[in-house]
Amino acid sequence: MKFTKILLLVVPMTVCGYVYAEVPTPKILVAYYSLTGKTENVAKAIADASGGQMYKIQVAKDYPSDTKERRAILEQEIEQNYLPPLATNSINPENYDIIFLGSPVWANHISQPVKSFLAKYNLDGKTVIPFVTHSGGGKGQSFKDITTLCTGCVVDMDGWSNWGGGTSKKLTRWVQNQIKTAE
Ligand SMILES: Cc1cc2nc3c(=O)[nH]c(=O)nc-3n(C[C@H](O)[C@H](O)[C@H](O)COP(=O)(O)O)c2cc1C
User: Fold this and answer.
1) pTM of the model
2) How far, in Å, is the centroid of ligand 1 from the Cα of 23?
């Protein structure tokens, strides 16, 4: 009799424990590169809507502030597909399950620092949800770039593409929907 009572208590607890162990809350990272702040603004809204950890992708050697000089360097880096070394960051993206990955569109592609990010970390098995900002040309090849540069990632091709750095309720709904789909 005593044994049966114990079983009645222990079995459901074990089952519950098992259920919890099988469905952990996904760890969400909002990683982004932003040269002039627009992608950063969208990244902040995504972090607010998702509860994710912000991760600023930064180049080890900052680009010049003079826009003409900077543009020339960027165009050369794009042309040569140069991957600029990144500054160190105490957060390891490999410890996250879902990664919102943000970039400005550069010459129809994701930015060189985001390419560096994808080359630096092993994100195999992670769900990567792209978001980009542009100045009217649209997302271009940017989402496809991520599938090419991270063949082991599960890339959500229903990414977010924004003209400029504005945010909206639609963006919040998109964030919540993409997380549900990824889980
Ligand atoms: C080198 C370079 C290339 C760019 N190429 C494009 C492009 O192909 N299409 C486009 O719509 N905007 C292009 N832009 C504009 C940026 O994508 C746009 O201003 C973006 O929102 C900037 O984001 P950020 O403020 O986070 O850097 C380019 C900007 C730079 C600096």
Assistant:
1) 0.90
2) 39
